Amino acid sequence: xxxxxxxxxxxxxxxxxxxxxxxxxxxxxxxxxxxxxxxxxxxxxxxxxxxxxxxxxxxxxxxxxxxxxxxxxxxxxxxxxxxxxxxxxxxxxxxxxxxxxxxxxxxxxxxxxxxxxxxxxxxxxxxxxxxxxxxxxxxxxxxxxxxxxxxxxxxxxxxxxxxxxxxxxxxxxxxxxxxxxxxxxxxxxxxxxxxxxxxxxxxxxxxxxxxxxxxxxxxxxxxxxxxxxxxxxxxxxxxxxxxxxxxxxxxxxxxxxxxxxxxxxxxxxxxxxxxxxxxxxxxxxxxxxxxxxxxxxxxxxxxxxxxxxxxxxxxxxxxxxxxxxxxxxxxxxxxxxxxxxxxxxxxxxxxxxxxxxxxxxxxxxxxxxxxxxxxxxxxxxxxxxxxxxxxxxxxxxxxxxxxxxxxxxxxxxxxxxxxxxxxxxxxxxxxxxxxxxxxxxxxxxxxxxxxxxxxxxxxxxxxxxxxxxxxxxxxxxxxxxxxxxxxxxxxxxxxxxxxxxxxxxxxxxxxxxxxxxxxxxxxxxxxxxxxxxxxxxxxxxxxxxxxxxxxxxxxxxxxxxxxxxxxxxxxxxxxxxxxxxxxxxxxxxxxxxxxxxxxxxxxxxxxxxxxxxxxxxxxxxxxxxxxxxxxxxxxxxxxxxxxxxxxxxxxxxxxxxxxxxxxxxxxxxxxxxxxxxxxxxxxxxxxxxxxxxxxxxxxxxxxxxxxxxxxxxxxxxxxxxxxxxxxxxxxxxxxxxxxxxxxxxxxxxxxxxxxxxxxxx
Length: 761
Prior knowledge:
Layout: E1 2-3, H1 5-9, E2 19-20, H2 30-45, H3 57-64, H4 70-89, E3 96-99, H5 115-118, E4 122-125, H6 147-155, H7 178-207, H8 212-234, H9 241-266, H10 271-293, H11 302-327, H12 333-354, H13 359-362, H14 374-380, H15 385-396, H16 401-405, H17 407-428, H18 436-454, H19 483-510, H20 519-543, H21 553-580, E5 586-590, H22 598-601, H23 606-616, E6 629-633, H24 638-657, H25 663-686, H26 699-715, H27 742-752, H28 754-760
Parallel strand pairs: 1-2
Antiparallel strand pairs: 3-4, 5-6
Helix pairs in contact: 2-4, 3-4, 7-8, 7-9, 8-9, 10-12, 11-12, 15-17, 15-26, 17-18, 17-26, 18-25, 19-20, 19-24, 19-25, 20-21, 20-24, 21-24, 25-26, 26-28
Membrane topology: Multi-pass membrane protein
Pathway: Glycolipid biosynthesis; glycosylphosphatidylinositol-anchor biosynthesis
Main location: endoplasmic reticulum
């Protein structure tokens, strides 16, 4: 009874079951209250051999509020009262085990490898005496795998085949003297050891990854203790207690060594596979870089594309296979495939390195790269060394465990270093001449530095850094106890919503994209404020105290589904409008000559200015001698307007899936992204030359954008570990759960990769 996960794992395996939906971590009472309605009546009925009651309120309370919230005290009091009442219903031959399957961090999460997550309490109780001696002063540490053989033997069923646990000897003592208890314990240990030995023998034949010398040692140890147990069991007289205790200790030694050997074998790394994977990743990145440089402008035949790479790959696989054969080692198919793919990519790269473009294609190249091979073009194109060096440093640092743990702090450092070095590079070239453009560049650099610094306020700590304290801003507003602080945070969240909606509309109005009467413009005018109001209302309900809304529980549950679903519907409607008619340009015709002010002329990018100049010469005068004039509003931002509208809609959606105060991190993301784009525009204008291709994005912008995406993965409260996954996102708008796993997977995935989704646009 309780957690419906049991039904999914063991369908139709129970004589009687009372399951309740358990995946909604915001629901503290449904599972627990459902168990309490059936628990005592079922216990008194006696029609059971094993009864499982899986409570979830404490676990869900930790996820929702944390371990120090007043709601946790209420749930613990409820569990204490349940145990007091349950003990009174137990018979003398009933064994009660109360255990937790995991612990809890200071933020209520679990799933990592810290001590507070791995350790959990185990309480064993029976009205009949269990222990012959007084309990030890320090509680005994029992691995969770030991519960498997213990419960199996107590229930009289076979121990599961793949078990490597050890029986809990104290539960197999009899009510007689010490010798009788030892006999019962040795019998349990004998069954346990034989089952483990049978598993090791079968596993070693199938997998062949257990160390041979350790396996032989375990087999010798098992034969010795098995013979000793048979000898003691065959003695007519009662064996001496010291001999029985020594045999019990040897059983324990065998079982613990067997578990250690298996754990060591199953948790080891495979350096060959790791090196092969790194080689394949490196060659793939190198191939992408080559393709971005000259691959599209070189003449490649089918032979160059397929024959030569396949030949290189085949040679690589043959040489590696021959090396394994000479050493007498078994070749791994995955490793051979990875090395073969890497060799084929390196062969393609070598061909590009030594090939010179044909004259027909070389003529199409922009100077000074005309007619250069890849080798010369790579050296002839300065300026990419710095961003590519930082990108290489970021990739190679993934081999360092310290970087993996501290990646959330390293990425902002690399981003700030890149933008500062780019500004210094312009200074060294004499491009910073004190003009307005230079001051705008320096202002955007300062904005990036400030945003990178402030993003550290929203990072979550990993269990490998016990001295680190996770930001209190990551939790939901409902966990804030001070009403004044809660109101202040809520006000800041409203400011974020208003800023995003107003900023987008202000930008579109400034560039003339709100003059069109199309449906998309109407949606921006009215849909954005409506989205902001809907999110604000949803946050107001989720941040309210449960005690204050207890009388409106039904209405609150309805609002918790209506508000998010309305937000989802509006966002989908807006995105469909963008895909349907993304152009927000308003064209106005006139016979009078157009009046162009300097401010409006500056809004037209250079590309459209050139197009306008080329088309002016083709205009014909009308009959009255005047020239036809056309005014186009929003032409200069025809592409960026649709992109900005889409990103704003996605931003509203992703903010809804996160905790309320993380909207401040999203505001930093938008500000930093705008600063990076403006900085790139200023730097491009300051360093432009006659041969600058307006359609080529420099590596500085690409690397900075990629670093920003990784930075805000951490700045939105995420870590690449299971305890940091925001499972609450799966139930935004779906309080009663889901029929399938597809929609919750999409919601959790969108929550996790929010920064990558936004910055990928």
